[in-house]
Amino acid sequence: MKSITIKGSERESVGKAATRAVRNAGMVPCVLYGGDQPVHFTAEEIAFKNLVYTPNVHTVVIELGGKTSNAILQDIQFHPVSDRILHIDFYQLHDDKEITMDVPVKITGTSPGVLGGGVLRLNQRKLKVRALPANLPDFVEANISELEMGNKLYVTKLETNNFKLLNPENTVVAQVRISRAAMKAAQEAAKAAKAPAKGKKK
């Protein structure tokens, strides 16, 4: 999985007044969990642009005073009106410990059902993946090459390589629905098949 580097500074004071001053300075208060003890730090709000405002997922390298820690974004709080970032929690990664993340679904292949007039619907844009940090995928591939019109692609049909999918087995990832035009054409064809041929003698 691709990684983004966030450079920050450790915080000594974590009271409400200090936190308010941090935000007023265009910084975001953060906490890194998962180590011996939580680490409070701040980083510029603009540094999180490519981490937060994207459909992709990334691991994070947090640089604090020359020390680096690998982590993932665990929780984020936004201002209810301005939508500015108020606070971010990170969780430190360990090479020998599995981690759970929501990973985007990437559609691959061409569906015969879509070529025949059906409509592809992506039911799950992200799936819950569990893996060691080194095996976390950038996306989960959903191949729709065998989906005929009316078919569904279940999570159990997806290929997993060194990672596990934690979604229930009956989770529908994608499906090809019959379009209105295709349905109308099928109905008209059925009517034509039932109607007696013109000019046919009894």
Structure write-up:
There is one protein chain. The chain is α+β, with helices and mostly antiparallel strands. 16% of the residues lie in helices and 41% in strands. It contains 4 helices and 13 strands. It has helices at 16-24, 49-52, 112-115, 180-194, and strands spanning 3-10, 27-33, 39-44, 59-64, 67-78, 85-92, 99-108, 119-122, 126-131, 140-143, 152-154, 164-165, 172-177. The strands form 3 sheets. It has a 6-stranded mixed beta barrel with strand order 1-3-2-6-5-4. A 4-stranded mixed β-sheet has the order 10-7-9-12, with no helix packed on it. It is elongated and about 85 Å long. The mean pLDDT is 89.
Can you tag this structure with a few keywords?
single chain, alpha+beta, four-stranded mixed sheet, Rbsml_bL25/Gln-tRNA_synth_N, rRNA-binding, ribonucleoprotein, Ribosomal_L25_dom
Major beta sheet summary: 6 strands, mixed, barrel
- CA-atom Rg in angstroms: 25 Å
The parts where pLDDT drops under 50 for at least 5 residues are: none
**SSE order:** EHEEHEEEEHEEEEEEH
User: Which geometry do the CA atoms define?
Assistant: elongated
Enumerate how many helices there are, as a single number: 4
Structural class: alpha+beta
Instruction: Round the mean pLDDT to the nearest integer and report it.
Output: 89
Helicity level: 10-25%
Organism: Flavobacterium arundinis
Domain Large ribosomal subunit protein bL25 beta: 98-178
GO cellular component, one term: ribosome
Keywords: Ribonucleoprotein, Ribosomal protein, RNA-binding, rRNA-binding
